[in-house]
Structure formats: structure tokens, C-alpha cells
Amino acid sequence: MEFVIDVWMRQYEDAVKKQFDHRVRAIGFQGSLARGEGTNNSDIDAVLILDTLSAKDLETYSHLLDRLPFRERTCGFVSGEEELLCWEPSDLFQFYHDTVWLFGSFEGVWSRISLQDVRRAVWVGACNIYHLCAHNFVHEKSVQQLKEGYKSAVFTLQAIAFLKTGRYEKSRKGLFSVLQSRDLDVLKAREQLQGKTHLSSDEWMEYSQLLLDWASGWIKRSAFENEKGGKEYGKIRKDPSGEFGPDFT
After folding, report:
1. Alpha helices (runs of H) in 21-114, residue ranges in sequence order
2. Which residues are CB-neighbours of 118 under 8 A, at least 6 positions away?
3. CATH homologous superfamily for the domain 5-112
4. Contact partners, residue 198, CB within 8 Å, separation at least 6
5. I need a surface site. Which of 70, 100, 113, 132 has the fewest CB within 10 A?
6. Of all residues in the chain, what percent carry a pLDDT higher than 70?
7. What angle do CA 111, 106, 249 make, to 5 degrees?
8. CA-atom Rg of the chain in angstroms
9. Where in the chain are the domains?
10. What is the three-class DSSP state of 168?
11. pLDDT in tens, 178-220
């Protein structure tokens, strides 16, 4: 059976609305398929927002997914409405930009996100990647875990690019056009690693060192900028062109 994301999402939307009816607040999808970069093996990152969410709802939702095709590839995000609106703002930055809404939307979450939250997204992302890289080098020694670290770095790079340009670059192609220096090196390394299942000892050291040094640099820079504070922690405005940018006024 051929997979087509638009067809699958229509099936998904019909099933969800039939099951939960008026309780559905929004339906969408995320990930590589939403960015137009998916493959035949990509995960289906479905997003469902209900009025409220209980364990019983999760059980019902799981059984609903079991009845849809390509269940083994289905994952994603499910939440109650109030919980999403109260979500930690730096985490909402990625969620807001990475979601394609098919029914409903949560435009209101953007008003809760400041430049400080975007900077925090970079800081927390760099800390998590640094820990993953160090732990993996000593304990797991896994090429797959290293690749996961570089995959996570892409999300942090998107926040970094936003701070530089005021635009959110969904695609890796867009990121290549705006990133520089070590940020660009990390993005290139991520592309190189995608097709590798084995690394020589020199490659293992090289890729691990690059990711560790890059994350270290952003941890220190983020801490310095947090101490400095100042007007760079302003709000984010949306200009008439539809692009986002810093508002230092």
C-alpha cells in the first residue's frame, strides 16, 4: 500500500472527529513530512489537541490509531487544550513553527513567546545535546545515538537562525543559506552522518568532538547573554509581510 501523507491525514482526521466529535480542538502534523523532507520510511507525527485529556482518552486514541494503516510509523503529540496553552514557552517555539494545522489552530500561543524564550530554547537544546554526546561517548558508544544528537541539533540551529534573521527556516535547505561557521559545520555533519551505519575510530572522534565543542560554545554564550540581559530580550513582532522578527522598542 502506497503511503501519501495527504490521504493518510484525511483518514486520520475523519477517524478522530468521528471518535471525539465536538471535543476536538485542533488536528495537524509535524516532522519531516510537514517540512516536505519526508521519505517512505519517515515517522507520521500526528498532532491532536482535545478539550481535555484523560488516560481513558489516551487508550481510546491508541485503539483508533491501531485501526489506521501504517500504525508502526505513527507517533506524534496529543494534549488537552489548557495544557498546551500553559506549556513552557521555549518549548512552544519549536512546536508552533513545526506544526501544519489541518483543523483548528493555536495562533494564540505565539503571543506567549518572547525572544528570551527563543534564547532559552537554544540554551536548553545545547545543554541536552552536550549531555547526550558526553554520555554516549563514554557509555553507549552508539552511532545511532550520535546521529540522534545531530538530529536534535537541527532544532537548536533553527532557533539560532531565527535569532539571526527573524525568520524560521523549516527546511535544512533554508538553514544552509543562513548559518555560518561552526553552526554550518554541524549541519553539514548531520547530512554526512545520515547515510552512515558505521564509523571508523577517527570519524567517531571527529563527529563527537565537533558536536561537543559546538554545544559547549552555545552553553557558554547562552549563559553570558542571560547574564547580560538587556533589551535583546524583547517581544517578537509579526510584520506586514508575515515574517517574524525582534521588537526592541
Report:
1. 31-35, 55-66, 81-85, 89-98
2. 90, 93, 159, 162, 163, 236
3. Beta Polymerase, domain 2 (3.30.460.10)
4. 143
5. 70
6. 91
7. 15
8. 19
9. 5-112, 115-247
10. coil
11. 999 999 999 999 999 988 999 999 999 999 999 999 999 999 9
